[in-house]
Amino acid sequence: MIILENQKTPVTKDKEIVKAWTIVDAKDQILGRIASRVAHLIRGKHRPDFSPNQDIGDFVIVINARHIKTTGRKMEQKMYRHHSRHPGGLKEFNLKTTLQRSPTLAIEKAVKRMLPSGPLGRKLLANLKVFPDAEHTHKAQKPVADQTT
Question: How buried is 94 (Cβ within 10 angstroms: 0-12 exposed, 13-18 middle, 19+ buried)?
Fold first, then answer.
């Protein structure tokens, strides 16, 4: 981190950024709360050298995405919509159906909507790896378990 005489805000250079790998277990966790924590880690807001215009956060692996919980009746009432841009092309699925079809989609969409929109948000979303069960393919990166969940 370099601080010049006339510069008051420290700026971390891209080559100085060290990204950690964090693993988050979503089993029996509330969807919104786990997504909020993951977005916080991906954005890098837990770091003292956080900068809102840089990709400074960690890589996050979410396991057991199939076993998330929700409060209330969200499993039946929360809808995911997709439109094909053709007349009558609206498709709607509730959360329960979405978890059966694609168990990772609910967490991916929740985290994506908590990140900034634009090029930085798309770059940050690439740091998210979601797996439906406890098995994941990033053992070589030696991820550290998240302490807050």
Answer: middle
Ordered structural domains, the chain, with CATH = 19-70+103-145 (3.90.1180.10)
Task: Give CA separation, 5 vs 8, 15, 53, 76, 98, in Å.
Answer: 8, 22, 22, 58, 54
Which residues lie across from 73 on neighbouring strands? none
Catalogue the E-assigned strands of 15-102.
21-25, 59-63, 79-83, 90-94
Please state, rounded to an integer, the average pLDDT across all residues of the chain. Answer: 93
Q: How many CB atoms lie within 10 A of CB 65?
A: 25
Distance, in Å, from the CA atom of 101 to the CA atom of 121, rounded to the nearest integer, reads: 26
- The reported pTM is 0.89
Q: How far is CA 29 from the centre of its chain?
A: 14
Q: How far is CA 52 from CA 17, 20, 33, 110, in A?
A: 14, 18, 22, 20
